[in-house]
Specification:
Elements: H1 9-22, E1 34-36, E2 47-57, E3 60-70
Antiparallel strand pairs: 1-3, 2-3
């Protein structure tokens, strides 16, 4: 999980929760999922997938985004 300078703790916590959901616990040879609560820089050779997250708390809905970082070998076919 990435926590860039200036990122909010709440958005980072959400990114960590999403990474946990995306990681397959039954496959110990598969590395964990890397996520970011803010848009990561795209000049690092990685591909990003934006996940739209809809949260409902206290009767209110909040739309958030979490970015998953994928190396070339991890791209879905």
């Amino acid at each position: 999980m990435l926590h860039p300078p200036g990122a909010s703790p709440q958005q980072t916590a959400l990114a960590l929760a999403v990474a946990d959901l995306l990681t397959e616990p039954d496959h110990p040879r598969v590395p964990g999922t890397v996520t970011s609560g803010t848009p990561p820089p795209l000049n690092n050779g990685l591909t990003t997938v934006r996940h739209d997250i809809h949260l409902t708390t206290a009767g209110r809905t909040h739309d958030k985004f979490v970015w998953q970082l994928l190396a070339t070998g991890q791209l879905p076919i």
